[in-house]
Write a structure and sequence with these properties.
With 182 residues, the chain is mainly alpha-helical. The protein contains 6 helices and no strands.
Length: 182
């Protein structure tokens, strides 16, 4: 395996593991698990995840994987947005809901591309991510606690799925469960 391919697989694995951990964190907050969710502490956690995903995005770019880099960058932007808003304590919720809505639509397109290439587990994880982000946007627009809870549940399920996908990539399992190697 070439150095570029190794770098691409490492980036992919980093993105899936960090993405899974961040999704479980988002889901836990949305479902109000752990009654002491201090916004500034969560902001620092999200910014830390965003920094790690930024590294994954840079590895994707260096490996020449434009689609992976773009999808990771969108998820990374969401983490930066949530992290900065939670740390600072003030944000424009309407703008955040718009960003979530457009990100969810983008993830639907990436889901179709993953499905067309036969990457079934990745397509399922991206589909759940799209539904989770779209549900979070709708919950924000409607100020619905029930939709926030539903979004949190989808995030936790998707986070576990991304962690499984990270393990599958680490083990080098090919599609339909794994990903197409670079």
């Amino acid at each position: 395996m070439s150095a570029i391919s190794s770098m691409a697989l490492a980036a992919t694995d980093l993105v899936y593991i960090v993405g899974g951990a961040m999704l479980i964190t988002v889901g836990s907050v949305n479902m109000n698990i752990g009654k002491k969710n201090e916004p500034r502490d969560l902001g620092i956690v999200f910014i830390s995840g965003a920094i790690m995903l930024l590294i994954g995005t840079l590895f994707d770019v260096l490996a020449g994987s434009a689609l992976s880099a773009a999808a990771t960058a969108v998820f990374d932007a969401i983490l930066w947005m949530i992290g900065i808003a939670a740390t600072v304590g003030k944000s424009n919720l309407f703008a955040m809901n718009h960003a979530l809505l457009y990100s969810g639509i983008y993830f639907l397109f990436v889901t179709v591309l993953a499905g067309l290439t036969g990457q079934v587990l990745l397509a399922l994880a991206l589909l759940l991510l799209a539904f989770q982000v779209l549900t979070a946007a709708i919950a924000g627009y409607r100020a619905s606690a029930r939709l926030h809870w539903t979004s949190g549940l989808l995030a936790i399920i998707d986070g576990v799925l991304f962690l499984i996908l990270g393990a599958i990539v680490s083990l080098g399992i090919p599609p339909p469960l794994g990903i197409i190697p670079p």
